[in-house]
Design brief:
Layout: E1 2-7, E2 13-19, E3 22-29, H1 35-49, E4 59-65, H2 69-86, E5 90-94, H3 95-101, E6 109-117, E7 120-129, E8 132-135, E9 140-142, E10 155-158, H4 162-172, E11 177-179, H5 189-202, H6 220-226
Parallel strand pairs: 1-4, 4-5, 6-10, 10-11
Antiparallel strand pairs: 1-2, 2-3, 6-7, 7-8, 7-9
Helix pairs in contact: 1-2, 3-5
Length: about 230
């Protein structure tokens, strides 16, 4: 059994393939171009080097958000199209959950943080229980300081929202705040694929026609229209 996953929630566009539980290929691009121009090129290149045809994929997965509004629409639309065209199921994975799963087992708490712009972040807190990460609260969007009252133990912060607000988080949460390495803040398609593979085996899939992204807040256009 094989699963293909796609991520376009940030400036990086990536994909990964899992075969029988093992990640056999992963590819990411960060070329400063719109994902519309690169997403299928990444998918086709990955399938080619993995020696696979699209028809061999049993399930498609995608990060359903939060993240860039434009990136989310492109990624979700692409994967919905692939799933509908092949008649295969879909699995959605939270971008914050994927980040949390990239954290090592060094702290009891993990806080996934993504830059939401306008001085805000998307964030979610997870507690490590054995080999599992348990989501403690709903995913949220707000100012970086909104996270502070929720952290009461050593906590690893991970994600592209850490860089611009590292001093704010560290200053407010000494000595609890720890930070992932500089190379660990980008979402890895392989992390998404591993989560999606587990859900696929459990039968937790969705039909393409009912699948929807998660934005957490209104777009700038929607705010202007309602404002």
């Amino acid at each position: 059994m094989k699963l293909l996953t796609v991520d376009s929630t940030t400036e990086i566009c990536g994909a990964a393939v899992v075969a029988d539980g093992r990640v056999i290929g992963e590819m990411s691009l960060n070329r400063g171009q719109t994902h519309t121009r690169t997403i299928m090129a990444v998918v086709e290149a990955l399938l080619s080097v993995s020696n696979l045809e699209l028809s061999a994929i049993d399930c498609f997965a995608v990060t359903r958000g939060p993240g860039s509004f434009t990136g989310l629409r492109i990624g979700v639309s692409t994967v919905k199209g692939l799933a509908a065209a092949t008649g295969k199921p879909m699995v959605g994975v939270s971008s914050l959950e994927a980040l949390a799963h990239q954290a090592g087992p060094c702290t009891p708490l993990v806080c996934a943080v993504m830059d939401a712009r306008r001085s805000e972040v998307y964030w979610c807190l997870y507690r490590r229980e054995g080999n599992r990460l348990v989501q403690l609260e709903p995913e949220r969007v707000g100012r970086p300081t909104d996270m502070v009252p929720h952290v009461d133990a050593a906590c690893l912060f991970i994600g592209n929202g850490v860089r611009p607000y590292r001093d704010v988080i560290g200053g407010a949460l000494q000595p609890f705040a720890l930070f992932a390495g500089d190379g660990d803040h980008a979402i890895r398609p392989a992390a998404i694929a591993r989560i999606a593979w587990g859900r696929y085996l459990e039968g937790t899939t969705e039909a393409a026609e009912s699948f929807a992204p998660v934005y957490l807040r209104k777009s700038d256009a929607e705010r202007s229209a309602s404002g």
